[in-house]
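Slides due. Your pick:
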Amino acid sequence: MKKTLLITGALLALTVGMASAAGLNLSWTDCGLNGASVRTFACTSNSGTNIAVSSYIVPAGVDSANSNEIVIDIQTSGATLPSWWMMGTGFCRPTSLSMNFSGFTGPCMDYWAGRGAGGSNYTAPFGPPNRARVKAVWALSRLDAGPIPTDQEVYSNNLFINNAKSFGAGACGGCTDGACIVLNSINVTQNPLTIGAKFIGNPADRNWVTWQAGVPNCGNNVTPARNTTWGTLKALYR
């Protein structure tokens, strides 16, 4: 009996440790395991929006968090990005991708609480011809920066991909193609800068989601981001 209790206690401690380990999560519709890993769409309508939610668990030592610097990669199943995934100025779907950092209503911590400012950009293709990259930064003022507990999953951002030009006249080809979306990194910076940023580049539970049938080995075929900073842009919002 005593041995059974010891084993049960050890397993419980391991489970708690795993749940609070620092890392990244990406899911459709909600944070972490509260959301879904797969999104399918019949591509028979031009209405609606698909929301991929980025969240994270920080390592110890985040006492004055003031920004997230985010890198998300998208890779499609074909040799090149189809026009449906060309979402920027001059492309087939110029306004179909956006990001916000507010309006969270689920179980994870909303650290932003409607505060801050920043921006994002979408580069396609990025590296291989079937890959695109989203980079974003969101920052708080020095007065709003505060601690983040290590046992709390925190919302970072919502990535919106709408269904415009998926069907009918003027549709952009490739809506039915599989894709893999990977949250490669979040760099959590702090005030003052001497405290040190916390770069998170590993998954907590799952840092990727699939679109339609996805791609083989989704999450491992997309090159991880390098630890780069957006210090110049971030400084605008301190």
Summary: The mean pLDDT is 87.
